[in-house]
Structure formats: C-alpha cells, structure tokens
TrEMBL record:
Compartments (UniProt record): Cytoplasm; Cell membrane
Protein name, entry field: High frequency lysogenization protein HflD homolog
Keyword Cytoplasm: yes
Similarity annotation: Belongs to the HflD family.
Main location, first listed in the record: cytoplasm
Any single Gene Ontology cellular-component annotation: plasma membrane
Gene3D superfamilies named among the record's database cross-references: HflD-like
Membrane topology listed for this record: Peripheral membrane protein
One Pfam family it belongs to: DUF489
Length: 213
C-alpha cells in the first residue's frame, strides 16, 4: 500500500467534516488545559495539532489530521461533552469557544491573515528542516501567535500552575496549541461551520459524531 494513502478517507458529509475540524479546535483547547495543569500532553494529540498547523498545503482534507479520526480523539470526546453525552470540562469549553471567536476576528482582518500566512510558510520550511515538533518550530509558532492573534483586545487567559506556565518552553507550547486551534477553526469555517449551528443543529453534530466513532 502506498504509505501516503490515508487509512481512513475523509467523510463526504459536510457535518462530519465540520465535526472533525471542530474537534481540532477543542483538542487544542484540551491540550492547553493539560499543559497548564500538568506540563504534559498526549504525544499523538500534540503531534497531530502541530503537524496540521505547519502543513500549509495539505494534499487532502484527511491529510490535515494524519489520515484517521482517532488522531483527533481527544477533541471528538470533548465534542461529546458539548452535545451533552459526557461530562464537560468548563475550562476546555471556554478555551474552545474563545478560539472560535478569535478565529472570526482573524478571518475578517486581511492584513493579519496575510502576515500570518507568510509566517506559517516560513515555519513550514523550518519544520521540513528540523521536524514539525522540534522546539525551534514550536517556538516559531508561539512567536507567530504572539505577534498576530495576541494583539487582539480579546485574549485567552490560561489558568493553571503558575510555576509550570513560566517554565522553559511552556509559553511557546501553549501558544503553539492555541495557534493550532485557530488553524482548525479556520478549517471549520471553510467547511461551513458556524457558531449558531452549534446551538440550533446539535442533532446534526450528534449524528456526525456517531458516524466518526
């Protein structure tokens, strides 16, 4: 089998594609919370987010998240909480919805979108040289977030262990996660995702999640 062939083709359903993209947003939110509280993250969930963010020209929709929905399992589980099937972590939900709000601000700011696109293209070159999760790449992603998204008046205030949050590379890792959340938020919007749908079309989201399990 060709190693570049995805294990699992992307769903044809628009709702399922939106659910996968939204899972990326809430996976980023979940990892930000985990980093801030424990200093550790699930390697597979982390690598999926970072690789998606540095790949500025993916070959297909499924290539964005590494070819299998289980790479976004953490985010999909958070969406199960969003539709009322599991216990929700209010901090993670707050981070996720804040990321969607920041994504909308970014989307309407053409200059910032252009600037961010240029930064990510440079970072992709770095990732090809060092590897996507190398600390130089993570530091560059964090810097790109700080120079763009962080300049909005609305900011995400991360709660956690202050000593951990100030430890080496932790601010960069948190910002890189937030950048990944923005990346998946833009993907969600491109696939037709809208905030009002999360309120009025929960049944569609439930069905989409069922199709991905």
């Amino acid at each position: 089998m060709n190693p570049t062939t995805p294990i699992h083709r992307a769903p044809d359903s628009a709702a399922a594609r939106q659910a996968l993209a939204l899972a990326g947003v809430f996976q980023a939110a979940s990892l930000v919370d985990e980093l801030a509280r424990t200093g550790q993250v699930d390697p597979r969930a982390w690598e999926t987010l970072i690789e998606a963010t540095v790949d500025t020209n993916p070959a297909s929709f499924e290539a964005i998240y590494g070819g299998h929905p289980n790479n976004l399992r953490r985010g999909l589980d958070t969406l199960e909480a969003l539709v009322g099937r599991k216990q929700a972590n209010p901090v993670v939900l707050r981070y996720g919805f804040s990321l969607l709000m920041l994504m909308n601000k970014l989307r309407t700011n053409t200059n910032m979108m252009d600037s961010l696109g240029q930064k990510l293209t440079r970072i992709q070159g770095q990732a090809e040289h060092f590897g996507p999760t190398h600390e130089n790449v993570v530091a560059s992603l964090g810097e790109a977030y700080q120079e763009t998204i962080s300049t909005f008046k609305t900011r995400i205030v991360v709660q956690g262990d202050p000593s951990l949050l100030q430890s080496r590379m932790m601010p960069e890792r948190v910002r890189a996660c937030l950048m990944a959340g923005i990346r998946f938020g833009l993907l969600w919007h491109q696939q037709g995702g809208r905030r009002w749908k999360l309120v009025f079309q929960r049944k569609a989201l439930r069905r989409a999640l069922d199709s991905l399990n």
